[in-house]
Automatic annotation (TrEMBL):
Protein known as: 3-hydroxyacyl-CoA dehydrogenase
Domain of life: Bacteria
Protein's UniProt keywords contain Nucleus: no
UniProt keyword annotation of Protein biosynthesis present: no
Family the entry assigns: Belongs to the enoyl-CoA hydratase/isomerase family.
Segment forming the signal sequence: none
UniProt catalytic activity: a (3S)-3-hydroxyacyl-CoA + NAD(+) = a 3-oxoacyl-CoA + NADH + H(+)
Length: 638
C-alpha cells in the first residue's frame, strides 16, 4: 500500500497520508510526500492542497528507528518543497501532531485542527532537537516565550492553546476536511516573517534556569540555542545550524540512552498485555488504608474515572482519608491535571468491609506489618466474591505468604505503587508463585487505565526497585563509615543527574519503613555480614525524616541542612567499625553506587525476579530518579 494518495477534485488536491499505526514519517512516506509535491507543482489547475491523515492521528513523529541513520529524501528538503509551493497547502490536523509531524504542519501554509488535537515538539525527550525547521518556523508563528516552553520542555499543547498562541489558524467546528478546503490562504511566506517577541527574552537567564532544571541533559540547552539562532540569524542560516545540531545530537550518547529508555518503557509489561484471561472490571475499585499511599492510589483511580470505596480502621480515620484524597484532587486540579473536582463524588469512605462486595479489584495499603495485612486479607477473603482480585501495595513483605492466607491464592498479587501514587508513573506488578492469569491481566489493564508503566517483578525482599535501592543504600552507609558524609553523597548523585540524593530521598519518604524491614531481617542476618548501624541510630534518636523535622538532615530552617549530630553519630560508628576515615571524590562515590546497582541488577536477573535488564532500567529511571539521559544502570553497564 502506498503511504500517500492524491486525488484532485474541483481544483483542490487532497493529499491523504495512510501509514499505520501513527503515520510516522519514515522513508517511504517522505518519498511519497516529495513525489506528490512535485506532481502537484506540475498541475496548473490545482489551486490548493489539503493534507490530512487516515487513522487515529495526523503524523505523530519521525520513525525513531531511522534516527542516527537517516535515509533520503531528508525531511527538511521535503518540507522546503511544500513551503515553497506556489499554491497554499492546508494541514488538516487530528490526534497527536508531534515532532516531524508538527514540522510538516508548520511547513504548510495554514493549519486547522479537530477539537481535542494535541501538538508538540517532544524531540528533547529523545536527546535531540527538531531538525527540519521546527525551531525556525515555530517562533515565527508563536511568541518566542511559547516556542521556548514547547521546544525545551517537549510537552504537547492543546488545540485551544495552539490557537491562542498562533500555532494553528482555526479549530474545526464540524467536518475537518470540508472546513480545511475553505481555509483562506495566508499572504507572506512564513520564513519571511519576523520572529515574534524575541526582544522580551533574557537569553542568559533562560539558559541558567534551564541548565539547573535539565540536570545534565544537553538537548534542552541545544534547543534553546537553536531558538536563539532563529532570533538572531537569517532564517536560512538558522535552519542550517539547527540541522547541524540535530545531526550531532542524533548520534550522541544521551540520545542513545534516551532511545533505550523509550523502547524499554514501551516494551515493559508486555507480558501482561499478552495474557488471554479477562481482567477484572475497573469501574469500581476498593482501597484499604487511606494513608499516604492509599489516598494517592484512590486519587489516581478517581482521576482515571473509577469509583473508589476506601476502607479505614474507623470512622475518624475514614474522615481523615477523605480529606487527604480531597486535598490531592484539589492540588491536581490546581496544576491543571484534573478538569473539575466532581471526581470526589465517586469516592466513598467508611470502615465496613461489606461496602467492598461489588468491587472486582481491591488494593490494600495498610501499615507495613505482616500481621495487620494478614488480618485484612483474611477479612477480604470472607467478604469478597470468589473472582475478585486482591492486591497488596507492600514494599517488602512476602506476597506469597499473604496469598496463602486466602482460600484462592491465584487471585492475589502485589501492586507496588510509588509515592505520590497519583503522580508517579511506575507500577511494579509483583507476580507471586500462586498468582493466576486473571490477576495479572487485571494488573495490565489497571496500568493502562492509570496511564502507568507496569514492570513485572518476582517475589523477593524489595522486588526490583527497593531491592536495588537497599543494596546501594547499604553501600552508601559503608561509605559513610569509611569517610564520606551524607551531603557529599547526595551532591555526587545530584551531580550525576539524580533528581535527589539518597539521603534527601530517605528524609522525604521517612526512615521508618526501611527500619522496620531491617529489624524484621535482623534474626536471619548472618553474624559475619557487614552491617552499618548509622541509620538505626538515627531512627532510635527519633530522626525519622522530614516528618519528624530531622533525619539525615535538619529541617528547622525549612530546608535541608547538614547536622553536626549526624556527623557525630557517623564518626562514632566509623570508630566502632574500626575504620580510618578517608576522602572520597564524587566520581569514586558514583562508581561505587553504579557498580552496586549493576551487581544487584545482575543477581535479580539471574534469580528471575526481573524479566529483562531493560525492565530494571525502567524501574530505576521512572521510580528512583535515575537520570533518564544516562539510560539506567544496566544500560551503562553495556
Ligand atoms: P501510612 O501509615 O501513611 O498509611 C497506612 C494507613 O492504613 C493508615 O491511614 C492507617 O489508619 C490504615 N490502616 C492500618 N490498619 C488498617 C486496617 N486494618 N484497616 C484499614 N486501614 C488500616 O502508610 P503508607 O506510607 O501509606 O504505606 C502503606 C503501605 O504502602 C505499606 O505497605 C507501605 O510499605 C507501602 N508503600 C509505601 C510507600 C511510601 O512511600 N510511603 C511506597 C510504596 C509502598
Amino acid at each position: 500500500m502506498q503511504p500517500v494518495s492524491l486525488t484532485i477534485s474541483e481544483g483542490i488536491a487532497h493529499l491523504r497520508i495512510d501509514n499505520p499505526p501513527v503515520n510516522a514519517l519514515n522513508q517511504p512516506l517522505r518519498a511519497g510526500l516529495r513525489d506528490a509535491a512535485l506532481r502537484i507543482a506540475g498541475m496548473p489547475d490545482v489551486q490548493k492542497v489539503v493534507l490530512s491523515c487516515a487513522g487515529r492521528t495526523f503524523v505523530a513523529g519521525a520513525d525513531i528507528r531511522e534516527l542516527g541513520a537517516p535515509l533520503e529524501p531528508y525531511l527538511p528538503d521535503v518540507l522546503d518543497l511544500i513551503a515553497g509551493s506556489s499554491v497554499p497547502w492546508i494541514a488538516a490536523l487530528h490526534g497527536t501532531v508531534l515532532g516531524g509531524g508538527l514540522e510538516l504542519a508548520m511547513a504548510c501554509h495554514a493549519r486547522i485542527a479537530a477539537p481535542g488535537t494535541r501538538l508538540g515538539l517532544p524531540e528533547v525527550s529523545l536527546g535531540i532537537i527538531p531538525g527540519s525547521g521546527g525551531t525556525v518556523r515555530l517562533p515565527r508563528l508563536v511568541p518566542m516565550s511559547d516556542a521556548i516552553a514547547m521546544v525545551t520542555g517537549g510537552k504537547p499543547v492543546s488545540a485551544e492553546a495552539a490557537l491562542a498562541m498562533g500555532l494553528i489558524d482555526r479549530i474545526a467546528s464540524g467536518d475537518l476536511q470540508a472546513e480545511a478546503q475553505d481555509m483562506p490562504a495566508p499572504a507572506a511566506p512564513l520564513l519571511d516573517r519576523p520572529v515574534r517577541e524575541a526582544g522580551a527574552i533574557d537569553w542568559h537567564a533562560q539558559e541558567q534556569t534551564l541548565r539547573r532544571k535539565s540536570r545534565g541533559a544537553e538537548a534542552p540547552l541545544e534547543a534553546l540555542a537553536a531558538l536563539r539562532d532563529s532570533a538572531e540569524l537569517p532564517a536560512r542560516d538558522a535552519m542550517a545550524r539547527e540541522r547541524e545540531r540535530f545531526l550531532r545530537l542524533s548520534v550522541s550518547d544521551q540520545s542513545r540512552a534516551l532511545r533505550h529508555v523509550f523502547f524499554a518503557e514501551r516494551d515493559a509489561g508486555r507480558s501482561l498485555r499478552d495474557i488471554e484471561a479477562a481482567p477484572a472490571d475497573l469501574a469500581r475499585v476498593g482501597v484499604i488504608g487511606g494513608g499516604t499511599m492509599g489516598a494517592g492510589i484512590a486519587a489516581a483511580l478517581l482521576i482515571a474515572g473509577s469509583s473508589v470505596r476506601l476502607i479505614e480502621r474507623d470512622a475518624q480515620a475514614a474522615d481523615m482519608a477523605q480529606t487527604r484524597v480531597a486535598d490531592l484532587l484539589a492540588a491536581s486540579h490546581k496544576r491543571g491535571l484534573l478538569r473539575d473536582l466532581s471526581a470526589l463524588e465517586r469516592l466513598t469512605t467508611g470502615s465496613d468491609y461489606a461496602a467492598l462486595a461489588d468491587c472486582p479489584l481491591v488494593i490494600e495499603a495498610v501499615f507495613e506489618d505482616m500481621e495487620v495485612k494478614r488480618q485484612v486479607f483474611t477479612r477480604l477473603d470472607a467478604v469478597m466474591p470468589a473472582d475478585a482480585v486482591l492486591a497488596t501495595n507492600t514494599s517488602y513483605l512476602d506476597v506469597d505468604t499473604l496469598a496463602l492466607t486466602t482460600r484462592d491464592p491465584s487471585r492475589v498479587l502485589g501492586l507496588h505503587f510509588f509515592s505520590p501514587a497519583h503522580v508517579m508513573k511506575l507500577l511494579e506488578v509483583v507476580r507471586g508463585a500462586h498468582t493466576g492469569p486473571r490477576a495479572l491481566a487485571t494488573a495490565g489493564a489497571l496500568a493502562r487505565h492509570l496511564r502507568k508503566t507496569a514492570v513485572v517483578a518476582g517475589v523477593c525482599d524489595g522486588f526490583i526497585g527497593n531491592r536495588i535501592m537497599n543494596a546501594y543504600r547499604t553501600d552508601c552507609e559503608f561509605m559513610l563509615e569509611e569517610g564520606a558524609l551524607p551531603e557529599q553523597i547526595d551532591r555526587a548523585m545530584e551531580g550525576f543527574g539524580f533528581a535527589m540524593g539518597i539521603y534527601a530521598v530517605q528524609d522525604m519518604s521517612g526512615l521508618d519503613i526501611a527500619w522496620a524491614a531491617r529489624k524484621a531481617r535482623a534474626a536471619t542476618r548472618p553474624a559475619d555480614e557487614r552491617y552499618a548501624h548509622i541509620a538505626d541510630r538515627l531512627c532510635e534518636a527519633g530522626r525519622l525524616g522530614r516528618k519528624a523535622g530531622r533525619g539525615w538532615y535538619d529541617y528547622a530552617t525549612g530546608t535541608a541542612q547538614p547536622d553536626p549530630q549526624v556527623a557525630q553519630i557517623i564518626a562514632e560508628e566509623s570508630a566502632r567499625a574500626g575504620r580510618t576515615r578517608r576522602e572520597f571524590s564524587d566520581a569514586q562515590i558514583m562508581d561505587r553506587i553504579l557498580s552496586v546497582m549493576q551487581a544487584e541488577g545482575r543477581t535479580i536477573l539471574a534469580e528471575g525476579v526481573a524479566d529483562s535488564a531493560e525492565d530494571i532500567d525502567v524501574v530505576m529511571v521512572t521510580g528512583y530518579g535515575f537520570p533518564r539521559h544516562k539510560g539506567g544502570p544496566m544500560f551503562l553497564a553495556g
